[in-house]
Design a protein that fits this description.
Largest sheet: 4 strands, mixed
Oligomer: single chain
Strand content: 5-15%
Distance between the termini: 49 Å
Strand order of the largest sheet: 1-3-5-4
Order of helices and strands: EHHHHHHHHHHHEEEEHHHHEEH
Number of helices: 16
Length: 351
């Protein structure tokens, strides 16, 4: 039986927002607005964060540790400050699924405080283990940070504190109510459906073939991750789900009146290749490889289009026990989009 555990905290959104602001296209955020938020930081800290966030993902292994509460931003920054500066980078990198050789390279650079070109390819495996591909200059920056972790740790804490002061302190107050509502809505759903269906609903269409093996499901609402989901697996039988709780009617950018969800869906369906993909997904479930064969496209191109459809909430993903992903179209979401468009066009005072 799957045991449900609920958590709440604005610290998750603090680090997710940094990630989103530096990868706006991945989350469907207007790039010019994201750049405007980043420009509030002084030049040195802005440049540092741009480079640092190419190296480190949101630090969920650290954030999910139970030994410090509450999970608000001030508490997280105080906890970060209590970590010795030279250990902050390694703390942020905890929990990645990396090869032993890559981890050995990381440890060797940190110990010797130096690296050579032969280390860079091994570091590339470090990012592959976390499902990321990186450029050569990013590998150099990572190696430099590992060779001088004290300086990185000092600069990282300073940049995070400044980001909180110039932007997220106000944002934290704005989104706290929505996070609380997302938590309450999730608990209400949990009373009406089994854990596997709850997971599929809160993740906007993700399911696991062997979900019955999940013994503990930890659920955390997030405003900034919507409509996507962050999954963290500290143990094979445990899944942490940081699920998007921003409704279709709410916008990440304050003062924008056309619903984000409507814009993302219309953009997703405006491309002929994605329409063909949607057609095939209506007929039967497909993997990226099978779609690539049908469309005569390279698999990376197909995955790019599937990610856009996923961002628009138009596809479901079933993950097999072998980690293969199979996609189907969420027909109800297409119907809902048509209704949203009709509602917007026929409102009395459209903005």
């Amino acid at each position: 039986m799957t045991n449900l555990i609920w958590q709440f905290g604005t610290a998750y959104d603090f680090f997710i927002s940094l990630f989103v602001l530096h990868q706006p296209n991945r989350f469907g955020l207007r790039a010019s607005w994201a750049a405007g938020v980043r420009s509030r930081l002084p030049g040195p800290q802005r440049q540092f964060l741009e480079e640092a966030l190419e190296i480190i993902p949101p630090p969920f292994s650290w954030l999910t540790q139970p030994d410090w509460q509450p999970k608000d931003v001030k508490s997280s920054l105080a906890n970060l400050a209590s970590i010795p500066a030279e250990l902050r980078l390694s703390t942020m990198l905890q929990g990645g699924d990396v090869s032993q050789s890559a981890q050995d390279t990381v440890d060797r650079i940190r110990m010797n405080q130096a690296y050579d070109l032969s280390d860079l390819e091994s570091l590339r495996d470090f990012f592959r283990g976390n499902g990321r591909s990186v450029k050569q200059k990013t590998l150099h920056r990572f190696a430099q940070a590992l060779s001088d972790p004290f300086t990185f740790g000092v600069q990282f804490l300073e940049a995070c504190q400044l980001y909180y002061d110039v932007f997220f302190e106000e944002e934290e107050r704005r989104i706290q109510h929505f996070l609380q509502r997302g938590l309450e809505d999730g608990k209400q759903l949990a009373a009406t459906m089994p854990p596997s269906e709850l997971f599929r609903t809160l993740s906007h269409g993700i399911s696991y073939e062997n979900f019955e093996k999940v013994e503990q499901l930890v659920l955390i609402p997030s405003y900034w991750s919507s409509p996507l989901v962050f999954l963290h697996n500290p143990q094979p039988s445990q899944i942490w789900v940081i699920y998007g709780c921003r409704s279709d009617e709410q916008n990440l950018i304050p003062g924008q009146y056309i619903p984000d969800a409507l814009i993302k869906t219309l953009k997703a369906l405006s491309d002929p290749t994605r329409l063909r993909i949607a057609h095939y997904l209506t007929q039967s479930p497909q993997t990226p490889t099978s779609l690539a064969h049908l469309l005569r496209l390279r698999p990376p191109t197909v995955i790019h289009h599937l990610n856009i459809l996923r961002l628009a909430g138009l596809v479901e993903i079933k993950i097999s026990k072998d980690r293969e992903r199979c996609y189907t179209l969420r027909k109800k979401e297409v119907t809902k989009t048509i209704q949203q468009l009709d509602d917007y066009l026929n409102q009395k005072d459209p903005v």
